[in-house]
Design the sequence.
């Protein structure tokens, strides 16, 4: 008899939305994501507007959309910031 073991691996990631992004969800939340989820995948799962330009910060460092998220990461998302003259 052969046993098949299936693992549903997930990681917990804290997500923080800043400024105008707060209208799309809680200011801060912890979400479960499938293992190997990227920053871009997480953004898509959050139902933010498609092609919305974002500053993506993981654990205090700017990261590209293809950056993989790991257990305990903090993903902070900022809308474009403009100002001054």
Sequence:
């Amino acid at each position: 008899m052969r046993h098949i073991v299936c693992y549903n691996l997930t990681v917990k990631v804290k997500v923080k939305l800043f400024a105008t992004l707060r209208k799309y969800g809680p200011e801060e939340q912890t979400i479960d994501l499938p293992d190997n989820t990227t920053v871009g995948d997480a953004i898509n799962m959050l139902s933010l507007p498609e092609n919305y330009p974002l500053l993506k910060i993981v654990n205090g460092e700017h990261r590209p959309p293809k950056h993989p998220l790991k257990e305990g990461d903090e993903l902070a998302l900022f809308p474009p910031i403009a100002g001054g003259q």
